[in-house]
Amino acid sequence: MPRKKKQSKEEALAKAKIARRNRYNKIKADPILYALEKQKERERYKKRREQKKLLSIVEMTPRAKRLQRKKWRENFRKHFQKKKLIKEGIKHMNENTPSPSDNEDNGNNDENRPRRRNSICENEPQPSASNDLHEAIIKNLRSKLRKMRYIIEKKDQMYKSQLESLQRKNNAYRKIIIRLKKRMQSPNSKVTALLRDKTKVEEAKKKILFGEAMRSTLQINYKNKKSKKKKRI
Predict the structure, then answer these.
(1) Do 179 and 208 have their domain in common?
(2) Domain range enclosing 198
(3) What pLDDT is attached to residue 70?
(4) I want to staple 102 with a disulfide (CB 3.0 to 4.6 A). Which of 98, 114, 117, 170 is the partner?
(5) What is the 3-state secondary structure (H, E, C) of the chain?
């Protein structure tokens, strides 16, 4: 026995959607069931409002408002695109459908020809133009969706590579700045760095004492030289 072909996710979702639609159409055909269904929907809506699962645009955060408005724009764009495709399909059908006068001419020309009717062919269901149009619209939308997904993935990869490049440049510039800061350290910054490091406090004291001793020695030598010059004069 051949194994059944595994359904794809899109096919399963499409079948589930058709089943929900058929169920809703059956309920809608019965006024009592339709009224009960509407009452259930109102109760569900009220419950979700009470539980804060469903918020109005005024109650949302700024980020949630942006996301909701983006979703509305996307839904409107899809709805407008669908209406446009249906309009184009109807226009295409009208252009390719022969006029009644053409049919009459063809009928007059074929009056003298024998007509053969096959009972089996008469019982077979004829293809519906609306179904063909619906399938064409779905096929077109799927191809556009695949194209949009491909473009988004390409842009995502491009932005990721740009981000990685910027991060590498940022790290390189940061290392250069650190090296330049080390080279441009002033005496005060060196002393401050030594005093901040507790392990180098003794070293800092020695350097300070050495600097003070050198300063006092230079002052004494300068005074001695100055006094010798005065004596010579």
Answers:
(1) no
(2) 187-232
(3) 92
(4) 98
(5) CCCCCCCCHHHHHHHHHHHHHHHHHHHHHCHHHHHHHHHHHHHHHHHHHHCCCCCCCCCCCHHHHHHHHHHHHHHHHHHHHHHHHHHHHHHHHHHHCCCHHHHHHHHHHCCCCCCCCCHHHHHCCCCCHHHHHHHHHHHHHHHHHHHHHHHHHHHHHHHHHHHHHHHHHHHHHHHHHHHHHHHCCCHHHHHHHHHHCHHHHHHHHHHHHHHHHHHHHHHHHHHHHHHHHHHHC
Residue 164 lies in a domain: yes
Indicate whether 110 belongs to any domain: no
Span 103-141, pLDDT tens digits? 555 555 554 444 444 444 444 444 455 667 777 777 777
How many structural domains is the chain composed of? 2
174 and 193 assigned to the same domain: no
Q: What is the pTM of this model?
A: 0.33
Summarised one tens digit per residue, pLDDT across range 216-233 is 888 888 777 777 666 665
